[in-house]
Amino acid sequence: MAPPIRDSVGDAVGDTPVVRLRKSGASEKIELLAKLEFNNPGGSIKDRVARRILSRLAREQKLKDSTVLVVPSSGNLVLSLALQVPRYVPHGRVIGLVPERTSEDRIRLLKSLGVDIVRTPVEAHADSPESKFSLAKKITADLPDAILINEYADIDNVRTHAEETAEEILEQTEGKLDILVVGAETGGTISGLAKTLKAKIPGLKVIGVEPEHSSIRDNVTRSGVWRVEDMGSNFTPSILDQSLVDKWLQIPDQVSYSTARLLIKHEGLLCGPSSGGVVAAALHYADEALEVASSDVSKLRVLTILNDTARNYTSTLMSDDWLLEHDLMDATLARAAAYHRHEKYRAASVEDLQLPAAVTIPPTATVGYAMDLMMTREFSQLPVIHPTNRKLMGYISQTTLTNLLEEGQAHDDDQVSKWMYSFVKKQPGLATPSKYVTITPLTPLAELAQFFEKHSFAVVTDEDRRWCLGVATKYDLMTFLNRRQSSGRAF
Ligand code: PMP
């Protein structure tokens, strides 16, 4: 049944799906499930906590027009509060105290929601004056009508999951579950879920996941930092109920990021890096549990909670360059990236594309002639060549000319020189301007492929850019790869 019309985005929070993971490498004796918390309107599980905290504040009549919410959080709760606060306070302000590791993507989202952002050092211990907690306390004390929202100590963070998320899980799994694997930062999710689910499902094992160097499990001060956002903490939060956690696993950043990328590619799950860590931990723990289980165990059912969306991380998790720069790709992922960047074009260069001789026009040709030529030969663009010295001057594009003709700016009998894009001239004694990339027959196809990440076509010239030798498009590159593949050359 389709959900009914909701009055606000806060009412659309929750009821997230559970899906079976089929390509994650789990053994046949493991049924690996994932609850997709990134399906919430704000892209994370924290939408649930924000809803509960806001409705409590409203009930207690603490929200006024001038209210400022001061939120020390790794980012998701700030986002969720900012999304939902207009329902209660039309011009409510949110100040987020966000660690330096929080990705630029999420900061942009927060800014678009009008959140004031204060960055805090990741290493700062909770008690130190520069920590997000100390700063938040100070800001709250200084501002009239400010309310501090501390999810690390707020019991509603636990109740949300004990009463809402856990009930959904019970319904969705029909109470059949062997292992629950949850990432932790404030400890709210794991404590709430474990409280309800352990009471209802005898024998359920609850596994907590934190990054390597985090101190949630033992409160031991460590100097290490980690990159996975929203998971891990350098102290044990007060709302965490350790007695409900059967085992803690520490996951290296490289494993979390690489697993998240596999989940995105192979399962189509647009989840963030902490979800990668949780699934990696689940596979590890379930394999171990199977080894020690008696042979009559037919199958272990494991539920993971995937907390937030990959869209929070387009400049980090989704960027091969960023992952390589920070050594966050495991060998399998690095091999796949190298294959796509270089090896599939191995040893081939532009001349292997066997481009037809370039069809060019002089700058004095008319727009009408150029349009006819492009239509009949099915070209999207044509290089413009100097009529006497045959040098490449620029190019015209069919789309641009069509628009200009439709707008009545260009006319059929105009000379194309009036509407061509001219290439930035190479100045004697100066390096080629960075805007112009010279593509010659000897340019490796791997380089051409990179060029096509930003451009739709390439004019192929000699080294000095004197002669136009052809025009290449991504289509030529794809045809070449198909040809090579079907001629049976392994690569
Ligand atoms: N992963 C992500 C993406 C999160 O946003 C959070 C919450 N900060 C967690 C894991 C950990 O959840 P909790 O705070 O309930 O321990």
UniProtKB/TrEMBL annotation:
InterPro entries: CBS_dom (IPR000644), CBS_dom_sf (IPR046342), Cys_Synth/Cystath_Beta-Synth (IPR050214), P-phosphate_BS (IPR001216), TrpB-like_PALP (IPR001926), TrpB-like_PALP_sf (IPR036052)
Keyword Transcription regulation: no
Domain of life of the native organism: Eukaryota
Domain CBS: 354-413
GO biological process: cysteine biosynthetic process from serine
Xref: Pfam families: CBS (PF00571), PALP (PF00291)
Cofactor: pyridoxal 5'-phosphate
Keyword set, alphabetical order: CBS domain, Pyridoxal phosphate
PROSITE patterns: CBS, CYS_SYNTHASE
PANTHER family membership: CYSTATHIONINE BETA-SYNTHASE
Family membership noted in the UniProt record: Belongs to the cysteine synthase/cystathionine beta-synthase family.
Name of this chain's protein: CBS domain-containing protein
Organism: Actinomortierella ambigua
